[in-house]
Amino acid sequence: VRLAAVRESGLALQHIKNPSEQSVLVAIRKNWQAIQFTQNPSEAVQVAAVQKNGRALEHIKNPSIAVQLAAIQTDTSAIQYIKNPSEEFCFAAVRRNGLALRHIKNPSEELQLAAVQQNGEAIAYIENPSEEMQLAAVQGYDYTIQHIKNPSEAVQLAAVQQNGRTIQWIENP
Q1: What does the alpha-carbon distance between residue 9 and residue 119 come to, in Å, rounded to a whole number?
Q2: Which region, left, alpha or beta, applies to residue 107 given φ > 0 means left and ψ of -120 to 50 means alpha?
Q3: pTM of the entire structure?
Q4: Fewer CB in a 10 Å sphere around the end CB: N or C, the chain?
């Protein structure tokens, strides 16, 4: 009966006292949010949840490094649910999706550069980017000039040489 209930609705797990690991896994496969109704889930359960949705990490107390990495591989924005993520985890996130930079506090210059090289739009999450950073952002992502305040003439030129229509986003070219 328990298995039938969680197969139908993973969230039915909240009404089951002392569910078996099998019931918990079935519930999570049905609905990753069922993780919030488990007490001390095993690592296998945690991994199953974050593989369904990286945001499940928010509901896991003291996740192992393997669980954290699985969450980032599923959804790079899961980095925001890791307390004091290592530089290695931060790089793993921005190399998959440069926009994950917005969830990282005090990123190093190297991390910022990796982010804009992966996705030029990440420049929007960098305060006072250097000219080198701006050039890296517009190379291959010319339209990102719209996210740069007061781009230098060199940055403006790099953007319009790739795509003349980017002039529309440059104030006083």
Answers
A1: 38
A2: beta
A3: 0.83
A4: N
